[in-house]
Known about the structure:
By secondary structure, the chain is an alpha+beta fold. Helices cover 29% and strands 21% of the residues. The chain contains 7 helices and 10 strands. The protein has a 5-stranded mixed β-sheet. A 3-stranded antiparallel β-sheet has the order 8-10-9, with no helix packed on it. The protein has a two-stranded antiparallel ribbon with strand order 1-2. The chain starts with 21 loop residues before the first strand and ends with a helix. The mean pLDDT is 95. The chain binds benzoic acid. Residues 48-49, 52-55, 135, 157-158 line the site of benzoic acid.
Amino acid sequence: MESQNPVEVVPMPRIGDKAPSFKASTTQGEISFPEQYAGSWVILFSHPADFTPVCTTEFITFASLESKFAEANCKLVGLSVDGLYSHIAWLRTIKDKIDYKGMKNVDVKFPLIDDITMTVARKYGMIQPGESTTKAVRAVFYIDPAGVIRAIIYYPLSLGRNFDELYRVLIGLKTADAFSVATPADWRPGDDVIVPPPGTMDDAQARMKPASDVTLHDWFISTKKLPKEQVLKTVLKK
Ligand code: BEZ
């Protein structure tokens, strides 16, 4: 028998999907997402609630790093299931009162979405009932200039995000695109990168005699140098 009040089940967006579209009110006015970000990378992230301690430290950190992300052509958009006036009051409090690790008078200039109806949070799978039915988890969506989701990271309510890692993921994605390589465990610009593995028996055989700039570990794993300056020159301009 069908339920009287069926709960709409929305599939969670996945890596490789087009970012679901929405229009929303934010602390910087109305936005049309992701359409108005075409041509830029954008990180859409959620936080559980305004005026909560972990979220406050995250917002101060993200706002302090906004120009660093902008240099990599990446814009930031935040969301919680609070209303606009709560957002405005919280961001004013952050600027006027909070000093976290020497970061103070911090102006949060990126938009913070009013999602009191949870419409956007549900669309993006940010409400995860095993964690909370009333707060969004700490989700991070990386959306490329064509509006495609390229990476998703979820954290629980209790764990503040690592912003070095959030930046590293962006630079890693852009490096993989620009140089047609993959990036190994703990990769950072300047570390060797992974050459795409061979797809045929002949290619596998050819790999056994690597080019001078390639290090062969075995037929399926080869790495090569990619100087830090080359990475940064490329990924920080587009
Ligand atoms: C926090 O940001 O401090 C927080 C938010 C929701 C639940 C637990 C912690």
